Amino acid sequence: MPEFTYIALDNAGTERSGRMEGASDAAILERLRGQGWHPVRVAPVAARRLSSAGADTDDLLLATKELRLLLRAGLPLERALSLLAGGLAPAALRPRLTKALDRLHGGAGLGDALAKAGGFPPLYAAMVRAGEGAGALDLVLEQLCLLLDRQRRVARAVTSALIYPTVLGLVAVSSLLLLLLYVVPQFAPLFANARQALPASTELVLALSAFLGNWADMAFAGLLCLVLLGWLLLRRPSLGPWRDRMRLRLPLLGPMAVMAGVARMARGLSVLLRAGVGLPRALELSAGMAGNSVLATSVLAMRDAVRDGRPLTAGLPKDHPLPDLAVTLIRVGEQSARLAEVAEQLAEMYEDKLETAIKRFLALLEPALILLLALFVGGIVVSILMALVSINELAF
């Protein structure tokens, strides 16, 4: 059932906040009013990906592998979880595993215990819960290991590939600041005594250098404030759909965002279906893995179509961002009753496409940064040389 955050005032006027599960925000409002409280704000809790749900992906992967190994060795579930909480698991996860172990002692299932302990993604807890119900917990843990390992490898590949462009960008900015703040001012007194009009490019470079020399601190503070203000505005929940929609429309980056979202959604759907989760619930959980509210809305539209007894793709809105290939494969998988297998193939296909697109983008980014650096630095140097040449000609 969806989870909502709420802020309300009790009868004494004290502000209350927390989380509550319900069918809709209207149900939460009705429940709060039934308690005699006055609701101020009710908002859905956004579903989170495995890598951003409080537990680090590396820690979660290691703990999942260790739990699977202990269970395969024949240890009872409570004993295996006790060993993990007692020191085998990464330190960041031990308090949460201890809470889960307490709930397990109280009669709760592992999936419910992990969900209530906090720090574990909804998808993770739902898959464990489904594996328990189907008697296939070992299979689910194996699938979770594969899913987490894939996410970790992709994240590391992207991070490694971005190191060189980031260093190059820092070198470019540092070089420009060095020229404008320390090199160009050395020539300013010489040009100030010139009896001839300087080239327009030289005037521009001198003006920019003087501005940075006099107002560098203020300019940096203003730029920092603008970036911070923009970041705060873009984080507002009300701007979330607009932000995600604009992200999908960006050149080069937009198609990659679609590929990443489709790959994560399809991977989650495949794993959930193989774990025995019902299709509507699997679609609901996999929508949270898309990482984009526009893509998630399209997946939730397919969930609504299934609940209404219609084909999956019949519920998609006309302006949905899902690629035609993905829609066709989903339709084929549903018609052939092999949706889990087709979703896995779809995920692998778009993961490969995403890796290729990222490599191509970075291959274009590096020479583009070098070219921009050469243009800016070369432009400054040429402007100074042009002014020096014009002064020397006047002297002769």
Shape: elongated
- Going across the major beta sheet, what is the strand order? 2-1-3
The secondary-structure class comes to: mainly alpha
The biggest beta sheet, please?
3 strands, antiparallel
Q: Ranges with pLDDT <50 over ≥5 residues? A: 46-54
Task: Give the C-alpha Rg.
Answer: 28 Å
Quaternary state of this entry equals single chain
Q: Termini, distance in Å?
A: 86 Å
Mean pLDDT: 80
Helix content: over 70%
How many individual helices?
14
Q: What is the β-strand count?
A: 3
Strand content: 5-15%
| N-to-C series of helices and strands | EEHEHHHHHHHHHHHHH
Could you please describe the fold and organization of this structure?
By secondary structure, the chain is mainly alpha-helical. Helix content is 72%, strand content 5%. It is built from 14 helices and 3 strands. It has helices at residues 25-34, 57-72, 77-88, 94-105, 110-117, 122-134, 137-192, 200-234, 240-249, 253-274, 279-287, 293-307, 324-335, 339-395; strands at residues 3-9, 15-21, 38-44. It has a 3-stranded antiparallel β-sheet with strand order 2-1-3, with helices on one face. Strand 1 (3-9) and strand 2 form a beta hairpin. Helix 10 runs antiparallel to helix 14 (339-395) and helix 13 (324-335) packs antiparallel against helix 14 (339-395). The protein is elongated and about 90 Å long. The termini are far apart.
